[in-house]
Structures are given as structure tokens and as C-alpha cells.
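Open question from group meeting: does this chain pack into something compact, or does most of it stay loose? Before anyone orders reagents, we agreed to write out a predicted structure and look at it together. Recording both the input and the output here so the notebook holds the full record.
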Amino acid sequence: MPKQTGRNDRRSHIAHLAARLMAVDGIEDYALAKRKAARQAGTPDTRELPTNEEIDEALRTYQQIYHQEAHRNRLRDLRARAVRAMRVLAEFNPYLTGSVLNGNAGKYADINLQLFTDNAKAVELYLIDREIPYKAAQGRLYSGDGMHTVPVYTVTDDGTEIELTVLSTRELRGPLRTSVEGKSIERAKLPAVEQLLELT
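C-alpha cells returned:
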């Protein structure tokens, strides 16, 4: 077997193992899913790990084969919750990102929203004023060559976590990434999410 073919087969095998971990165990972190899948496959060489895009493709295949109806129902529910949250938070220019947007939401997926405002504290005050319980944390995103530490608030909608990442309005002008080398985060405004919900 040619060396390149063998490497591609191993990458594909790890991608499908990682996809299964994400679908069945609810792992949302690609890096963690890759590491666990590589251990299962007995492949310590990190150069042979698949990309996030390869895992996404394997995850779509897995869900179509094993959980098509359950996955569609779960995705519809998550997108409906996302639409409701985006309407409530309309003044903060919300965008949907992550697995609920791209259609790969697993069993325990949360909803990821990016909010854009020039007053980051206003989001927290909004939650306090409406007596919406939340957890506060910080996240890291990259734009250009720079890393930004941003506030993240997590609220719950009947057991489903909604993660609110608060960004300045100027961050709308350029792509954002979760890592230095990563691809740009896809995001969608409310009308696009409403349309996706209708098609789900």
C-alpha cells in the first residue's frame, strides 16, 4: 500500500471514530474528539489527525446512517430555541454559530450565539434586569494575528445551554477563528436561521 494512501485511510478512520464520539458521547470539542479517536485507533502521530472539516463530513454521514430521524428532530428543536433566544436578544445583533448552524449538532449540543455590542456590560445587565440566571466566563477568539479575550455568558432554556459570546461591533467587519490556524467561524443572522428552521 502506498504510504500516502495508508495515511489517508488512517485519517479517514480517525475522522469516523471522532464523529461517532461526537454523535454518541456528545463531545463538542474537536481536539478532544480527535485525541480520543487517535488513542482508540492506536495512532499517536498527530500529523495524521483529520481536519475539523473531515470530521464534520464523517459526522454528517454517521447521523444520516444511524440517527437520521432523531437527529432531524433534535436539530429542529435546537434551531427553534436558537430563534427564540435571538429574538429575545435582538438588540445585541445576535448571530448563530457552531453545530446548530452547520447541522452537526450532537446529542448534548448547546447553542452558540455571538452578540455584537459596543457595551459588553449591557448584556450582563440585560440578563440581571430580567432575572435570567446565567454563568459568566471568558473565551478566546482570534482575528487577524491577534487573540481576544471575550466575556461569555451561559443561560439555560429547559435544560439546553445557550452560550452567549459578547463581541464589539467592529469584530463584525472581519472573520473570527477559534484558533490561530483555524478556519473562519461561520455565522448567520436571525432571518437566515428562521429559514434554516423551516427547511429542517
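Observations to bring back to the group:
The chain has a mean pLDDT of 88.
The helical segments are 3-24, 30-41, 52-66, 68-88, 99-102, 120-129, 190-199.
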